[in-house]
From TrEMBL:
SUPFAM superfamilies the UniProt entry points to: YjgF-like
MF-aspect GO terms: deaminase activity
Pfam families hit by this protein: Ribonuc_L-PSP (PF01042)
Record lineage: Bacteria, Bacillati, Actinomycetota, Actinomycetes, Kitasatosporales
Name of the protein: Enamine deaminase RidA
Length: 144
């Protein structure tokens, strides 16, 4: 029997339609944000390097968060997987500016992890996260 706290997928229409995964899963007030690369609506990795890929990937995370009624201040944890840590570090100030533009001055617990590759070979970054959304803003997607 489904209850109000049964996990439900969160899949914004603004993101590529998922197949075999969900962009997020809401369980109670906790939203688990699935790994987001820099895929655009056309299922293509955005060109232009790590800063542009960060903007798209983090924007995808925030779109999923917003779909459930969340705001950046609800983020409690972010993990960033990187194929080139030195490249990310070299562009840290630009990436920080993008973060502040999209999320403001909120900084949840974070980790940056180097990896040899991601699902899409041209992806340089993948971001996963967790958010806790207060009841007064929580939007629970309808289940099919």
């Amino acid at each position: 029997m489904a209850t109000n706290s049964a996990p439900v997928p969160v899949n914004p229409a603004s993101l590529p339609k998922p197949s075999g995964f969900s962009h997020g899963t809401l369980s109670g007030n906790t939203l688990y944000l699935g790994g987001q690369t820099a895929l655009d609506k056309n299922m293509k990795i955005v060109p232009g390097g790590i800063v542009e890929q960060f903007r798209q990937a983090f924007g995808n995370v925030l779109a999923t968060l917003a779909e459930a009624g969340g705001i950046p201040q609800d983020l409690v944890s972010i993990t960033i997987y990187l194929t080139d840590i030195p490249d990310y570090q070299a562009h840290g100030k630009e990436i920080g500016a993008v973060w502040r533009e999209l999320a403001g001055p909120v900084y949840p617990a974070m980790a940056g992890i180097g990896t040899t590759g991601l699902w899409q070979p041209e992806a340089l970054i993948e971001i996963v996260g967790v958010a806790v959304i207060p009841d007064e803003r929580l939007v629970r997607p309808a289940t099919a």
